[in-house]
Amino acid sequence: MKIIRFYEGAGSMKLRVDTLEDLWTLQRILFPDDLVKSESVRRFRSSESDVGELKDVVVRLRLERTELDKNAERLRVMGKIVEGKPMDYIRLNSYHTLNIAPGDELEITKAHWHDYIIDVLRNAVSDSKRPRLGLIVADEEKALPAYLLGYGVQFGNEVYSRLSKRMSQKEFTETETKYFNAIIALATGMKADTVVIAGPGFTKEDVKKRMEDAGDLKKPSKRFIFEGASNTERTGIYELIRSDRVGRILERERIRQEFALMEQFLTGLSVGRSKYGAEGVSKAIEDYEAKAVLVNDSMLGERGIQAVLEKAERNRVKIEVFNSADEVGQQLASFKGVASIS
Q1: Number of Cβ within a 10 Å radius of residue 69
Q2: CA dihedral in degrees (70, 71, 72, 76; nearest 10)?
Q3: What is the mean pLDDT of the chain?
Q4: Residue 239's pLDDT band (boundaries 50, 70, 90)?
Q5: How far apart are the C-alpha atoms of 141 and 150, rounded to whole Å?
Q6: pLDDT in tens, 102-140
Q7: Average pLDDT over residues 150-172
Q8: Where are the domains of the chain?
Q9: Does the CA dihedral 116-314-340-276 come out positive or negative?
Q10: 133-249 maps to CATH 3.90.650.10
Q11: What architecture (CATH level 2) is domain 2-127?
């Protein structure tokens, strides 16, 4: 993501989105009544019976809702047209959808840009400059790949060994070799500077030996790290993220920070120092008992939560925005989506 310009006085920011993560970030910070301007297409009909033709236009909408299509890598921004050009192809107050995709530019106008919203965007700009981390947990039965991205963990499709004790020795060896080659192909093909391969048992060591023999570990374009993990499920991926060694790699990654903040909240909750829910957090801020406020991105558009966050800003309380779709965000959701730590 790139911030092209920001006119704070006019409440206007122009952005360019580069990745799917950027689209996800946009969805987090776009709220009803925001104005969004971008290039689009409209079907122009000269008469009611005319099939019409698509025309290039520039449209400004008053936002009503958004939808993120991860498969198509599109963010649909829906609302009523308040401005556009050329006017021959525009009907004011009619509904329209802007389909924002990687590579597109758009202009967002808000009544007020809160610091925590600007921080979310600046973090996205910073995240786009960081190398991604690839993760694979594997054992003798299956391998699960994942990426740690700016917005959390994205899981890939599992690969199964299909090994059986009923196989002949030759068939077992051939099938096992295919399985190891599939894991190696996953690892070497990941679009990440660092790939962590982990799991219980000796599978990771066998993969390491085969990669050493093939010369894959000496390639300067990618670094491979081999670690232990208790299982090959999604919990095994999260276990990796929490591990000390991977933690050193991820010390600047957002999800690692979220785990640490959640642990701090739970520790404080056990002794009555942490609060949760809009009412509890608001009172903690008023009583100067809040050092930081944790909030799920799915809550940012709610009026009651916005009032709490505005109060936190006035009192110079740090605001940490969590990914509501990730494990830590789901945990925070069980505490009404907003909490404070002292």
Answers
A1: 13
A2: -30
A3: 91
A4: very high
A5: 30
A6: 999 999 999 999 988 998 898 888 877 666 799 999 999
A7: 90
A8: 2-127, 133-249, 255-341
A9: negative
A10: no
A11: Roll (2.30)
CA 160 and chain centroid, separation: 27
Pair of tokens at residue 17:
């989105």
Residue with tokens 């991926």: 237
pLDDT digits (tens, 9 = 90+) for 34-79: 999 999 987 776 656 565 678 889 999 999 999 998 888 899 999 9
CA distance 30 to 301: 8
The yes-or-no answer to whether 2-127 and 133-249 have a common fold is: no
Range with lowest mean pLDDT among 151-155, 235-239, 300-304: 151-155
Res 211: pLDDT: 95
User: 255-341 belongs to which homologous superfamily?
Assistant: Ribosomal protein L30/S12 (3.30.1330.30)
246, two tokens: 């991977």
Quick: pLDDT tens for 191-216.
888 999 999 999 999 999 999 999 99
Q: Which residues pair with 54 in a beta bridge?
A: 43
Residue in the structure block whose two tokens are 């990796």:
240
| CA–CA distance, 276 with 85 (Å, rounded to integer) | 47
State how far the Cα of 156 lies from the Cα of 20, in Å rounded to an integer: 15
